[in-house]
Amino acid sequence: MRSKYSWILTLLLAFGLQFSFAQEKTISGTVTDGDGLPLPGANVMVKGTTKGAQTDFDGNYSISANEGDVLVFSYIGQKTEEVTVGASSTINVSLAADAQALEEVVVVGYGQKAKELSTSAVSTVAAESIESFVPSTSVDNILQGQAAGVQVTAANGRPGNTAFVQIRGVGSINAGTTPLYVIDGTPIDASDVPNLNPNDIESMSILKDAATVSQYGSRGANGVILITTKQGKGDAKIVFRSSYGFGERIPDPFDIMNAEQKLELERQYAELGVSAANALPGANADAQERARLIALDTDWEEELLRKAEIQSNSLQISGGEDKLSYFLSLGYDKNTGIIDRINGFERLSGRINTTYQAKEWLTVGANISASRSSTDLPRDRNNVQNPFRAMYDYNPWDPLFLRDANGNVVTDDNGEPVYNPTTTGFPIALALQTEPESNRNFLLIGNLFADIKLSEHFSNRFSVGLTNNRFNRTTRSIAGGVLQGFVGDANFPGTQTDNFSLDFEYNINNLLTYTDTFNDVHNVSASFLLEYNENIFTDLFVSSRGFPSPDIPYQDVAAEQTNGGTSEARRILFSQGLFLDYDYDGKYIASASVRRDGSSRFGPENKYGVFYSGSVAWNIARESFLENTFVNNLKLRASYGTSGNQAIPDFEFLNLLGFGTYNGFTTAIPLGVGNPDIQWESQAILDIGVEFGFFNNRLNGVFDYFKKNSDNLLLNRPISQIIGDEDNAIFANVGEIENSGFELSLNYDIIRGQDLLWSVGGNITLLDNEVKELVGGEDIIRGNTILREGEEINSFFLPEYAGVNPANGEPLYVDLDGNVTNQFSDGFAKLIEGKSPAAEMEGGFYTNFRYKGLGLRADFVYKKGNYILNFQRSAGVSIGNIDGNQRVEAFNYWKEPGDQNVLPNPIYQNTADQTSTRFLEAGDYVRLRTLTLDYSLPSQFLDGTGIDRFRVFFTGQNILTFTDYNGDPEIGLGSAETAEPGDAGFVPGAFSLFSYPQTRSFTFGFELGF
Amino acid sequence: MKKHINLLSSLFIALSFVACSDEVEDLQPFTEGNPETFFNSVESFQSGVNGIYSQLWNYYSSPGSGLQGIPDILSDNVILATTGRRSNEDYYDYRYVPTTGGAIPLYWSEAYEAVNAANLVIGQIDNLADGPAKDNILGQALAARALAHFDLARVYAKIPTQSSDANSSPGIVVIKVEDGDTGDPFAQFTRETVASNYAEIIADLEQARLLVAESNGEGRMDKDAVNGLLSRVYLYNGNYQQAIDAANRVTTPIATAAELPGLYTDSNNAGLVYELAVNTSSEANFNNVGVLYSQSNSSATISEYVIDLGFWQSIDVGNDARAEVMRFIGTNQNNDYNAIRKFLGEEGQVNGRVDVKVLRAAEVLLNKAEAQFELGQEAEALATLNELRDNRYDSYTGGETGQALFDAISFERRVELSFEGHRWFDLKRLGQDVVRTNAGDIIDGTGTPPEVRVLSAGDPRFQFPIPQAEINANPNMEQNPGY
Fold this sequence. Notes:
The complex is a heterodimer of chains A (about 1000) and B (about 475).
Chain A: H1 2-22, E1 25-33, E2 43-46, E3 52-54, E4 60-65, E5 70-74, E6 81-84, E7 93-95, E8 105-107, E9 112-114, E10 122-126, H2 127-131, H3 139-142, E11 150-154, E12 163-167, E13 180-183, E14 186-188, E15 201-207, H4 210-213, E16 224-229, E17 237-249, H5 259-272, H6 281-284, H7 287-295, H8 300-304, E18 308-320, E19 324-335, E20 345-359, E21 362-376, H9 387-393, H10 428-434, E22 437-453, E23 458-477, H11 482-487, E24 495-518, E25 522-545, E26 560-584, E27 588-599, E28 608-619, E29 631-645, E30 656-662, E31 665-672, E32 681-694, E33 699-718, E34 729-752, E35 756-773, E36 780-782, E37 785-787, E38 795-798, E39 800-804, E40 811-814, E41 820-821, E42 830-831, E43 841-851, E44 854-864, E45 867-870, H12 871-877, H13 909-912, E46 920-922, E47 925-936, H14 939-942, E48 949-963, E49 991-992, E50 999-1009
Parallel strand pairs in A: 1-7, 13-16, 45-49
Antiparallel strand pairs in A: 1-4, 2-3, 2-5, 5-6, 8-9, 10-15, 11-12, 13-14, 15-16, 17-18, 17-50, 18-19, 19-20, 20-21, 21-22, 22-23, 23-24, 24-25, 25-26, 26-27, 27-28, 28-29, 29-32, 30-31, 32-33, 33-34, 34-35, 35-43, 36-37, 37-38, 38-42, 39-40, 40-41, 43-44, 44-47, 45-46, 47-48, 48-50
Chain B: H1 2-26, H2 42-61, H3 70-73, E1 78-80, H4 89-92, H5 103-123, H6 132-156, H7 194-211, H8 223-237, H9 240-249, H10 260-264, E2 272-276, E3 294-296, E4 301-303, E5 305-307, H11 309-313, H12 322-326, E6 327-332, E7 335-340, E8 356-360, H13 361-374, H14 378-389, H15 402-416, H16 423-429, E9 434-435, E10 454-455, H17 468-473
Antiparallel strand pairs in B: 1-5, 2-8, 3-4, 6-7, 9-10
């Protein structure tokens, strides 16, 4: 009996063996980490073959293999496990954390480095964080609050607009302050960033200290943001993601008046003798007229704005075999914006990233992307043409459409309602349609590279990158439209200007690297860089008048051309660099770099600049005394070095001749006196940091102290006007400013269980700055801000408001002798100590909760210690503005002796309607940037459907804000057309004046993986 | 294979060092020229000379501060219209200080830019082959530089005939490339004397008159322009015989009464010796000089300054051909004003964009008459004066002698050159007070009279202050007394 059974068993086994030899079987299982948490994206390979698979979101995998094959399980930061396939078709593997492995790789400068061996302060933002922000159309907006030391402020709420990104404070006064963006090794303009598809991004590394930014030489001073796009690996994967939602203006923390309130305020003002109110209906209307006007009550926000429609679709196909990898992506994004009657932002993008191992010693690859975006631009200035001013300023008793004597809407010959010119004389809803401006960008970014392994110790990477952005702008003033009535020529109705520009930049670099190890512990690496970068910008424009039909927006049909022009600009940068790295067994690390830049922007005496850095680190965790303790990672590091800012104007070192006309003939006049000594702005950064991970890295973080001295800042040095210079000044490298501060980022996994995960974290940056040196110690006053030696950069410079005299309601000010007076003078302006648009503290924090497939993540951003000049509030309570709508707050003016905390008595209009510290407000806020709730269907429900992954998500952006500011505190551009980056004296966030407001949005979407 | 690669990459590296460095060093601007190499032909030099004219045009025609009008606003010819924008009120009321904006910084900066543009041309003149073309370029540049220096001198310093101490008082800085004054952008010059300024200005003009062509077309200096300017500068400098001689060399006849209206609407160039011109068909965005006095649209004329009623009433309005070109009735906010017609615009326009009449044959005649009077040649002076008067009106008494003759010359000068930027300098150089009548701004003399009626001769405000920006940038610069 027993033998019989064993025979059968033998037979079965034989069958089984035969079966399995003949045919692969499917092995499946779960890969978890040491704590039993699933590891999504872990690699499973059949050893010795190219067969591989990846785990899904729940750590599950399946792969076909033969019995006896060895499966290799690997995951970044975990020890690699090998398991031989036996009889069972289920293999569950737990991968232990690998403290020793030089695991996490960070992209630093011209290459990658094991994070543990990095000596630099680098913040990394990974795909996971980026994806939870994806309804943001621009990548830079995503960075806000994500990394310590990076100050991000959305420029304004216009869809497709960029953000102001500053790394470790303001590093310049007149030159640029935006960091250098590099995507897959190709430098791009900051203005190209909104045209990238965030879904394509694998990670962003923000280089903050000299150890890495010095490698970028004369372009590194404002920090560097390295963007790495996704690459394919493993089995082919198809991911489709789609979301849809809506956006709206963030509600104001105040009310504006309705028709009845506005009429009442007009009545009160007129009664007090405010002359501006005398002609208004509130002062004159009889009861019947009053009732008629109240019945017309118009909410101009409702008439001019709408809910934005936000769509995002993305399709990605990726995979890789042993020699080839590919990543293909398509994206479509649309945000109609919140202004009714014009189009918002639309972007179509595509990408292909691929690598191929052509020879054992040669790998070639290409990363190529194309994107086209279009935007309608509303007028963004402080006048009647701006819809965001109109919604506050247009009177509520002025309806959108014109009424006849009987109160009926007036219609034109076509039966269309006629827009009301209103008391402003400007029918804005019509103007939005007759004065369109549309911008289109077509951006190509390409990067081709060849990695050549020359020998065991030498390797070489050659790469060519190019960016090509075609920009078109069409501005029109349509015949019969609003502006034509003011400035048009009756004989030539309609005007149009077309701009076309091409921004082409190419970058060729070659990096030759030598690596070696001596005695198993001395690891050495040296890289030699050669880089050539050239930017060619050409532009042309033409203006015409006399268009036969508003439907034909082409210059060819115009009656005559009135203006036109072409121009070109180039700049060249040629660099050599040497980067050295050494470590002793991964414990003691030292790096050094030196780079020499030759720039066409520098003067002949300073054509070439040399930038250097040195840095050291000590991996204490690797010392034997910390082995087997709760300390998983502890690294001390320090760096010091220099970098430059070459974002200075071209050819400042040359005497130039400008051309124009006189009496119809050509003129040639000297444009200005050049300064042959002109050079880059230079910068030295000292950074000392600690990185740590405790308790199986459940608690980890980074702490940095830095001091950044920006020197040789370009300032206008006034010269005697007798010289005859056009500017009566020469750009010279004379100023100095200093930024210093602390950065801390912390993450803590409160619960790290099989099904339950809860982690929290955040970062904080404390920033201090000071103007150290200006030309001859002279103050530089730029509007309402001032630069003064020894003081905070861009401190506010305003007359001090001393409140309202409780006896008569007269506004009081402080004169220069410190006396309170009822007079006002611009001459009372003084530096307001400690108040500037720069925050003292800012950052972000998050909480991420996950139970099985269900997740909830909230990201907050905050800012403290910055001040904003609230012109928008000033306009809303200004007595002279009584001809426009007002905030309800305006009723709260002084009425009788003893009134305190009130607005000035309107009879003192002249001294009350003045710019002073009265409207200078703290800009502190905490904002719930995103809240994401998502659910991934467990894999058992997807078995047999061919679908790997199905996830649904709901995201809210900017849905909660805590602030005392009278308006929305997140301000970059105060008024886009009044003060833009690049304008002299532009300071982001210094004032608010009816720019496109921030929006909040709610989107719902799903993700499907095959 | 690998050896080849190594070799190739070494070669590549070596080559790229050389090639790329050249690229960096050789890059040139695209839409700007190189002032060191641009001037190599008569045409390019003429563009440089046009550049000097355009710098002069900048400060003569400025809609806010043009030298074409400010000297009238400073004088007794006009009165501020209170319904206007009250532009230039600091000047009209003599409240200017070194930090005052407008004319004070504008003339200083733009005139020296003209000087700089001129020096650029003069310094490289030897790039041209000797001959009349070269002479003509050099002559224009010297003359234009002299005009800029002369304007600076008469605005910021005393005029030699103004007072006995004038010649030894601080003048301006005359910058000549020939004297090695250029090249150091950080130079800090000190003021020279008035006497030295006028000597250098005259030297430039005397040299120019021998070089410059007979005629160079509208808007450019030619022989008549240089001689006309010389007659003025000699008159300012008290060189009366030379003023007469220079005036005699001017061949341009004065505009007839019939030609006058067309002259001011740019329909003709009658009697023009030198003007700063604008081509309104191709230069649609140039300065509107007339905005100094008024802005008009179809329904209103917003006047800034209107004719002083006393001045207006001193003219034989019914008889004098000049009355028509001086005035029109401008209406604003239901008030009528004696609005200024000169510089209102070309034929049919009210935009204020017209040529700036810098020097007219009529002025040359008046310069000559005054110089003759100063030399005691009263009969000749009277004859010269009548040459003009006969062309303007027939109702004058005539036959004046002595002070009456001098007054007649001054009166004709005031009327003929009214609103063209002369009156302030004429009062200043003769050491006379500014005395405004007490009439109001409205057409019948009602309305608001001037806040400051009298500025006495000898008042330091006859010399503009040196702009504060200059004092700040140049510690060697001495401020005028009284500021």
